[in-house]
Structure formats: structure tokens, C-alpha cells
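I hope you will forgive my troubling you with a question about protein structure. The full record is reproduced below for your convenience:

——
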Amino acid sequence: MKFRKLPHILSSTVVLALVLSARADVRLPALFSDNLVLQQNMRVPVWGWADEGEEVTVRFRGKTVSTKAKGGKWMVQLSRLKAGGPDDLAIEGRNKIQLKNVLVGEVWICSGQSNMELPLKSSFESTNDIAACSNPKLRLFLVAKAKANAPADNVKAQWKECNPETVPGFSAVAYYFGRNLQQARQVPVGLIGTYWGGSPAEVWMSQQTLESNPEYKRDILGSYAEALRKAESSGAKKQPAGWKPTELYNGMIAPLIPYGIKGAIWYQGESNAGRAQQYRTLFADMIRNWRRDWGQGDFTFLAVQLAPWDKGKKRTLEAITEKPGDSDWAELREAQLLTTKTLPNVGMAVITDVGDKDDIHPTKKEPVGARLALAARGIAYGEKTDYSGPIYKKMQVKGAQSLLSFEHTDGGLETRGGELTGFAICGPDKKFVWANAEIHGDKVAVSSPQVSQPVAVRYGWSDFPVVNLWNKAGLPATPFRTDDFPMVTATKK
């Protein structure tokens, strides 16, 4: 009889084993892998998935935190951590995960379009930098490109130590930023690269944010919906050319939230230049969107102002500077500058000196990353350092002369390369002409024999500004205008 029951016993055992194996192990998102960097001096979220009610325990540096999974998800927060490592991070439920080589330091999101995406191997004279890049205290996490119709919960990526094998394909701007920041702060730095060339700002924003603004709902969501409807009615098998709003936020930002971060660096705007007036609010609302969803306060957000570019027109410098004119790229730069004034803890790296007249992708990325790191040191870390070039403050008219005052002039103003260039002035007729400009201490005096009653002054107001006003801290002045004349992008949606 016993032998006759054996098959039944075996089958029950197999069934029990299958039932047990069907119960899910504790799982982690890709952000939690070997070599990760955790943000110091804050309550750091650690999360993942497990069976309903399963107890999950996280151990790090001798401390233990436990919780139970609800709805298949769990999260704990580690108490304020001090920079250092490496250490192991253990997560245990029915199974145990041991993460090795974990550091604590500063974590930054690095996002935007193609000028952020441009890899170190393609940047100017990077061969020696790649050869000398090995740094176990600098870690890289490159998010795989992914579009999604709804917020995703994971990405394809893993943390890697910075070395000549891992860094060549990573963002050059982000690498130089991280390298300089790590050297200056002397703590580990983690860089999360999440970028996609050609992307407009609205694809990096949530559906909720776009729907909450009537203008965005009409001009962004509505325009895409209408284009999609027309494509479908015409029998097209593909979605309309361009981008679907929110798709990169869903696929490449949402899965990163609420990972502990110090801030973000952002190089984008080329794809929105034709809608620069809209970008005045859109860019600020994107920052608010990220900050709200991360739930970590007004974290530092640093942007790169658009580089000079002649839009591929292949003109000579003489032709470019023949006479002052309007420029949607200048208007986009202004929108970027305005955001630094309307939101707290927002900074900007000005790069008027490292553009390429004939290339929308200038390859000199080291100064870009270095200036972002300098801005981070001043804004995010409160270092007493000059982190910004001169920023226009106010204008005073004295007779036929306009006297301009600036912020960030510690050490004084200076010109690089002869007489000041790039200043234009107009009278009541609003017709700008090139102007003479001279430095008077921490001010600039602007005039022209063609303008007896000055009304407004502009500086660097073109696609490819030829300018040379700096402060003595070695940082260039941002382009600006003193007027509020109608913008050329005012009617573009």
C-alpha cells in the first residue's frame, strides 16, 4: 500500500514546491544595484516589490529598518547618512539581496536633449581625459531610452564605477560636472544620466502638470491629439512625426522617483526655441513638476544656456554682425534666465564663448560641466565663490548715454579680446543699431551717435552672439535686453 501511495505523495510535494516557488522574491528597481551611490544628509528612500504582507528588512552600516509590503510594494527610509564607503547594503525577505561597493555622497540627475547626450568620446580633445578618468568615487547610471504612455516603475540600467571602459559613452557635460564636483567636495558623486536628443521640454513633464494649465492643455496636449487624429484618419500606420507629450517623463523620470538626490543639471531648449515665449512658463513648470513629484523640497536645478549657433547658415562673422535683429534663440536664452529669477535654487551656466557657428552640437563640453559644478558649489552647497557671470540689473539714461548696472560683478568687469562687442541700442523708433560700449567700474556705458534719446539696450541678442563682457572671476555675461518689446515667438504655439 505504501508503494501505491508514493506517486500521490510525490505529486503533492511537487505541487507544494510549485506553490512556494510561485511566491515572489523581494525585488529591487535597477537604481539599487552594486556600485550605487546614496545621497548623504537626508532620509534616503529604499524600495522595491514583495508579496502582500511580506516583511522586508534593510540593513546598512549596522542599522536595521523593517516594513511590510502593501499592494505588492514596500519602502523604507534610511536615517541621515554620512559621506563615505564602500559598504554593503542588505535587503532581506524570503530571499536576501546583498549589494556591494555602496557609497554615500552626492547624487545628481543629468537630463536634457542632444547637447546633454553628446558622449565624452565625441567631445573636444577628450582622449587624455578618458585615459585618466578612473575614479572609484565617481559612479555612473545611464538610463536606457524608453518612451511610455503611463508612468513606469523601473528602467534598464546599472551603477558603474567611472573608468575608461564605462565613461566614453556617458554624457560629456555630466562627466565633467561630476569630475569637478567630486574633486571640489571630496565626497563620492553619483550621476544619473537620463537624456534623449531632440526632445522638447513637454515630453519630460507629467500628464497632470500639462493638464492643469489651460494653455498647455490646448496648445500641447490638444495639438498632439489633433495631429494624431489626422494621422489616423489618413490611414497612417505610425504616430505623427515629432514627440508625444509626457512620454519621456513616464519612461525615464518617473521610475527614478523618489531616489534621494541633491539636484539636477539640465541642457535643453533647442527644440523649444521656436516657442520661446511659452518656454518662459513651461521650463519653470517642469522644474516645479519634478520638485513636487520627488517630494524633496526645492532641490537645486542648474540649466545650461543655449550655445551660440548660426543655424547652419554658413555665414561669415561679418554677415552675422551686419546689423542687430530679432532671434528666437535669444528669446529662449532669456526664458532660461528668467527662470533663475522666478524660482529658488535655480542657476545657469552661460557658454557664449564655447559655441560653434556651424554646429548645433559644440564639442567643447569641459567648460560647460565646470561652470555647472561651480554653480552647484555656490547654490547647492553654499560655498562663498563666484559662480555666475555678470547679469543685467538696471539701466539709467543720462542724456544720450545708457548706464547699465549688473549683479555678480565681484572683482569688477572686464573685456576679452579688445573693445566691447555685442551691444545694440535704440531710440523711440525701436530700431536697434550697434553701439559703443565702455566699462566704468562695475557698470557699462552704452551709446551711439545715431541714437540721441536711448530707450533700450540689448546685448548678445542673436542666434550666434559675438560678445566679450566677463567678470574678473572668469565667467561670461549672459545675453539680455532692457526692453519688453513684443517677442517674435509670441504667437507661436
Observations:
- Residues 391-481 form one domain.
- The chain has a mean pLDDT of 94.
